[in-house]
Design brief:
The chain is α/β, with parallel strands linked by helices. It folds into 2 domains: about 200 residues, Vaccinia Virus protein VP39 (Rossmann fold, 3-Layer(aba) Sandwich), CATH 3.40.50.150; about 80 residues, Helicase, Ruva Protein, domain 3 (Orthogonal Bundle), CATH 1.10.8. The chain is built from 12 helices and 9 strands. The protein has a 7-stranded mixed sheet, with helices on both faces. The chain has a two-stranded antiparallel ribbon with strand order 1-8. Helix 4 runs parallel beside helix 6. The longest helix is centred in the middle third of the chain and has 26 residues.
Amino acid sequence: MFRKPKLGQNFLVDDSARTAIANALGDVRNRTVIEIGPGHGAITSILTTRCRRLIAIEFDPTLVTELQLHFRHAFNVEVLHADILKTDLASLVPPTETVDIVGNLPYYITSDILLHLFATARGKAEVARGKTDLMRTNPPSANRGLIDHAVIMVQREVADRLAAQPGSRDYGLLTATTQLHAHVEPLFTLPPTAFSPPPDVYSTVLRLDFAPRFRELRVDPAGFDSFLKTAFAQKRKTLVNCLRAAGYSAETLRAAWPTEIPTQARAESIALEEMATLYRALTPRAVEAPRLLQ
């Protein structure tokens, strides 16, 4: 019999932690904040008095009813019953506006939510740049994505992966993708007792400052994303063998291979800058593509 997956809800009950999370967003008096999974409103109740507009996205219908009742007199709070992975965040704000994100991300879909945020942020930036080309103007919003900052809580092991450095055992595709889109800053770690019911793991709060590096690295977003997936596809194999398995010939790889990358290196040991150098050598058009993003 098919059963729906658990929601994985562990509600934050530590007062000092919820205040620290709200503080980590900084000054949001003139900002729109989107909260993912507000639960019983532990962080929502703090942000209500701090930000210009708060959009709380909750998947649990019972909690949605509770939140709508509790914040019914808060003119700046909107509670949406929605699946964050199916929500078009850009549609919630005016085209020229950016947002900040806060939330205790469900552990079982943390990676999916992060990828959704990255795609959403990048999508808005690309649309804005496209309009800029058509209008031959350069509004400030054209070089900005939808999201400026995010303060999120994730499982400690996931946080270690997101903040890992090349060469460490935690470095992988999710690390590279995250650091391609944002600067990652671990803030603090909470024990299971900070939640009700207590989870089986520790949780870490991170701040992500969104600053996509595609233009800096001179790569096209879609192509480089695909290249990274290929590079990390088989963790036990060297990068050369991963690329050979993807269809690159030995001759092509020898001709393009940068001197700074050892030929026996695995993807997890290679910095994004070096990976971008290899991608540009293998994909000449990638050097020209960033001009479309300016």
